[in-house]
Design a protein that fits this description.
The complex is a heterodimer of chains A (408) and B (209). Chain A is α+β, with helices and mostly antiparallel strands and 408 residues long. Chain A has helices at 2-17, 22-26, 33-47, 57-77, 91-117, 127-139, 144-167, 341-347, 360-365, 374-383; strands spanning 172-182, 188-190, 193-196, 212-219, 225-232, 234-244, 248-251, 254-257, 263-265, 273-280, 286-293. In chain A, strands 8-7-6-10-11-9 form a six-stranded mixed sheet. In chain A, strands 1-2-3-5-4 form a five-stranded mixed barrel. Chain B has 209 residues and is mainly alpha-helical. In chain B, helix 6 crosses helix 9. The chains are: A alpha+beta (408), B mainly alpha (209). At the A-B interface, helix 1, helix 3 and helix 4 of A face helix 3, helix 4, helix 6, helix 7 and helix 9 of B.
Chain lengths: 408, 209
């Protein structure tokens, strides 16, 4: 019905357009006349809105002039010549070629600049570029052990740069890293470079021989460094906890020692992700200043237990295990492989007294983990120790849970 | 007889089997579109001048049908072509249907203009233009009627106004209108039916008041 009405309406409109009156047009559809007539009257009325006046020539001319004037301005802004002329129909291709050439030039420029800047020394114009390239390379290195190795390599390069400057008796602002030494004459040195430490340095009393430090200062023509800032050299990395022992963890193939000053937040466990800030000891081993164990990333399958080395805590490379660890594997008579977190619970009281177990009874009375889901809490009750605190916590055998500042 | 002469006389072009190749306007403007679209992105002055000359009247009539303001219609029509330049600069210009793109842009600008108009006072009867070469009494009557129709037309939805403007300002066929609006012919028939029914109802209400 509607289809018929629509078609009838269209036919009538055509007839009216050709000059027929409404009466004539609807006469072909007597059964639809009552519906068609008001619609056709509305259509005729609507047609009355069509202006009989011609298109205003003045307005058209003005519009044309403005249109063409603006187009010339616009095309001038659109990089004429190379990109817009000479190769009709190849606009997109030209842009692609142009971008390719531009990227190639940029890549060549960056490559050549980085090669030249690699030989630059502190004080040179290209030296900041060299440092930036190194920083980018570090950021693009995801493997923690490779990143640590790269950082150590850069530390050595900084020292070599200073040695070159020393040979030329140059003076420059430098930043170097290395192991702090104190000679019998009480003078401080780093890589045999004499350090002048103003008494005004805020942390001068915290300096200890063997600290791996970062020094910022001015290399003097006499071959000494006037120290402006000195602080522990820290490294940061993230990774999966593979093995936990009372005072040393294996994180992403890197052994990290825990000490009295290590701050641990979160619930440690094999398979969990952790963010670490570490310092390098004089023997090359890494000591954790802070370990933040991420919640909710516990793995259902613990990391495989690795070979337990029987070496002293000091650096003793172990050929058999060196493939698995970028840092020397620790070990002692007291060390136990506690890749299974439940073992950590049993052993924790022996070491530091910080990783205390929470059994079912204790869990029911202890403070709930603010950030733990019920599932995580159950999992923790079965497998993992309570949230640990600073390793400075006493060996108090009473079960307790305390939170670190800022540990939500 | 030359093709342009056929167009000017309102003939349609037929193929050998007597089936119309395209409605006459579609054929003419499609030929212009195809010719110009192939060069439009070059943004050379000659091509742009041809585009402006060919389509300014088309756009102006459409806009003038939809708004009862000659100055605003001129401004909007000019703005449509400036928008075309912007689109070509940004490589967003029409690639297949230049006329549809221009009329679609005009429709959007008209809606924007009407939105602004709704926030302003309606013109009084005295402000309406009255042709001076007509009998003043008759002219006033015609103007009053036009005003009634205009007010009823303005109350239609933008899409209903758009379809009636295409059908009655430029006599676009169902095929052409469907092509311009990106709809099926059936959808255009329905839309047109509802637009006319609404217009009729609004006119009846206006007369009763």
């Amino acid at each position: 019905m509607n289809t018929d009405l629509f078609s009838a309406l269209e036919n009538c409109l055509k007839k009216i357009r050709l000059g027929e009156a409404i009466e004539q047009a609807v006469s072909a559809y007597p059964e639809l006349e009552a519906e068609l007539r008001p619609l056709l009257e509305a259509a005729v009325t609507a047609q009355s809105l069509r202006m009989s006046t011609p298109v205003p020539q003045a307005a058209q001319t003005n519009s044309r002039e403005r249109f063409l004037r603006t187009s010339q301005t616009a095309s001038g802004r659109k990089a004429p010549g190379l990109f817009r002329r000479g190769f009709p129909g190849m606009h997109g291709l030209r842009i692609t070629y142009a971008l390719g050439i531009l990227l190639g030039v940029l890549a060549f420029g960056l490559l050549s600049t980085s090669i030249v800047s690699a030989r630059s020394l502190p004080g040179d114009q290209l030296y900041p570029f060299k440092l930036t390239v190194e920083k980018i390379r570090l950021q693009l290195t995801w493997d923690p052990s490779a990143k640590l190795a790269l950082e150590q390599q850069y530390d050595q390069e900084r020292l070599q740069e200073v040695e070159v400057l020393l040979e030329g008796h140059h003076s420059a602002e430098v930043t170097i890293w290395g192991v702090l030494e104190q000679h019998p004459d009480r003078q401080w040195k780093l890589a045999d470079i004499l350090l002048k430490l103003p008494p005004s340095l805020p942390n001068i009393s915290d300096l200890y021989p063997g600290n791996y430090v970062e020094i910022h200062g001015v290399l003097m023509p006499d071959g000494t460094i006037l120290v402006e800032q000195i602080q522990d050299r820290t490294f940061s990395f993230s990774g999966t906890i593979q093995t936990l022992r009372p005072n040393v963890w294996l994180v992403e193939k890197t052994w990290v020692y825990l000490s009295e000053r290590t701050q641990v937040t979160g619930i440690p466990g094999a398979g969990r992700e952790a963010d670490l800030t570490v310092i390098r000891r004089a023997d090359g081993s890494l000591e954790a200043l802070s370990i933040q164990v991420q919640t909710g990333t516990s793995s259902s399958t613990p990391a495989p237990a690795l070979v337990v080395p029987s070496v002293s805590p000091t650096r003793e490379p172990d050929d058999e295990s060196s493939e698995d660890s970028a840092t020397p594997e620790p070990g002692s008579d007291d060390d136990h492989d506690i890749g299974d977190p439940s073992q950590l619970i049993d052993e924790s009281e022996v070491h530091n007294g910080t990783k205390e177990p929470v059994d079912d009874d204790e869990a029911s009375t202890g403070q709930p983990e603010p950030s733990s889901t019920p599932d995580e809490t159950d999992d923790r009750d079965e497998k993992e120790p309570a949230q640990t605190t600073s390793t400075e916590q006493s060996s108090d055998s009473e079960p307790h849970e305390t939170s670190q500042p800022g540990d939500d | 007889m030359m093709t342009d002469e056929l167009f000017s006389q309102g003939h349609e072009i037929y193929s050998k089997d007597k089936k119309p190749l395209l409605p006459r306007r579609e054929t003419r403007e499609s030929m212009i579109s195809v010719k110009l679209l192939s060069r439009v992105h070059e943004v050379d002055t000659q091509t742009l001048a041809e585009i402006h000359d060919a389509f300014y009247p088309v756009v102006y009539r459409y806009v003038r049908f939809r708004i009862d303001d000659e100055t605003a219609a001129e401004d909007i029509t000019g703005e449509v072509f400036m928008r075309l330049l912007d689109a070509l600069k940004g490589h967003r210009g029409p690639t297949q249907n230049l006329r549809g793109w221009l009329l679609g842009t005009a429709a959007h600008l008209v809606v924007d203009h009407l939105r602004q108009q709704y926030s302003r006072p309606v013109k009084s009867l005295e402000e309406l233009e009255i042709p001076v070469d007509h009998d003043p009494e008759e002219a006033a009557s015609v103007s009053w009627q036009r005003r009634q129709v205009r007010q009823a037309f303005d109350q239609l939805t933008p899409e209903q106004q758009h379809v009636l403007a295409l059908r009655f300002s430029g006599d676009y066929s169902l095929d052409e209108t469907a092509h311009l609006m990106g709809k099926t012919i059936g959808a255009i028939k329905t839309l047109q039916f509802r637009a006319l029914a609404s217009l009729r109802r609004l006119l009846d209400v206006s007369v009763q008041q």
